[in-house]
C-alpha cells in the first residue's frame, strides 16, 4: 500500500441532463412493474434542446402513458413548464431473448455481463469517503434550491471531491469542485459564499477543508444556460456516479431503465449486497465482489471475492460461503431484493448505494455468512 495517495469521486444533481434521463427511464420501469411485476423493460432516454426521446423494448400487460410520465418527471426535477417535444418509440422484447430468459424451471440472465460490488469500513454507509462526500454535496445543493436557502439556483449541478489518504486512512480533503446553474441576475460572488456556507461546510463536517484545500465554486464563471436545454443527456452515462465514483472496476453496464432480469442491474445490486454483508459481518475491512453471467444461463459463470488482504477467511472459503448463502440466479436475485416491485426512480439519484432503505443495502445476511464461513473453514481443516 502506498503511504500517501489521493482518491476522487463526483456526483451530479437530479436536474443534470444525464440523471434526468435515468429518472425518466426508471419512472417508466416503475409504471410498468406497477401493473405487471413480470414486465420486461429496457428503456433508454435522450434529452436535448427542445426534445426528449424515449426508446427501447417494453413487454408489459399494460403500457403506461409515457408522455405524461416524462412531463411529470421533468417538472419534479425543477424545470417547470419547459417547452419541449416528446417522442416515444418502443417495441416488444425480442422473441429470441424472451425465450432464453423465460424458461420453465428458471429465469435466465437477460444478457451477458460482468458486475462488481464493493464495500469498505471507512464510512457508516460502507462506501468510500470521496463518494459519500460528493453525493452529500449534490444532495445539499438540491436541498438549498428546493427550500430557497440559496435563491437563484437552477436544477443542473455537479460536485467533485478529492481526499488524501495516509496509510490507507482518509486524512484531509485536498480539493472540492461545485458547479451549479443559476439565474442570470445572480451575483457570482454572493453565490460562491452561499455555496460555501450552505453546502460545502455542512457536507464536509467530518473532514472539514483546511487552509490548503482548494475550493472551486463555479470555476468556469457564469452557469446560466444548463440542463437539457443547453446540453444533451443520455441514460446510463453516469455509471461511476451511480456506483462507487470510479474507485473500483465497473463492468460497463448501465443500471436505470432495466428490469431485474437484466443482470447489468440485478447483478450489480446483488454484488453490492454481498460485499456489504461481508464487511458488516466483520469478515473483511474492504471487499470487491465480481459476478459474471451468460445470456440465457441462470447460474453465474464466475464468482470472485477479493478482500484486498483484509479478510478473516480465504477468498476460496468466502466464495463457497457466498454461493451457499445467496441465490445468485436472476430469479433468486429478483426475489431476494424485491426487484419486481416499483421502487427504482426513488433510488436512481445521488448514488444507488446511498439509501439505507433500499433492499440491496440491508445487512441481514451477516450471521448466516459467519456461520457458513466457519463451517466451510472447518471442512477444509478436516480434510
Can you walk me through this structure?
With 383 residues, the protein is an alpha+beta fold. It folds into 3 domains: 4-13 and 129-227, GMP Synthetase, Chain A, domain 3; 17-103, 2-Layer Sandwich (GMP Synthetase, Chain A, domain 3); 113-121 and 260-378, GMP Synthetase, Chain A, domain 3 (2-Layer Sandwich), CATH 3.30.300.10. It is 36% helix and 23% strand. It has 11 helices and 11 strands. The protein has helices at 17-35, 66-79, 95-101, 129-147, 188-203, 227-230, 239-242, 263-280, 315-325, 330-337, 366-382; strands spanning 4-12, 40-48, 51-59, 85-91, 113-120, 153-166, 169-182, 214-217, 233-234, 286-293, 302-306. The strands form 3 sheets. The protein has a 4-stranded mixed β-sheet. Strands 4-3-2-9 form a 4-stranded mixed β-sheet. Strands 5-10-11 form a 3-stranded antiparallel β-sheet. α5 (188-203) links the parallel β7 (169-182) and β8 (214-217). The longest helix has 19 residues, at 17-35. The protein is flat, with a radius of gyration of 22 Å.
Short description:
This protein has 383 residues and is an alpha+beta fold.
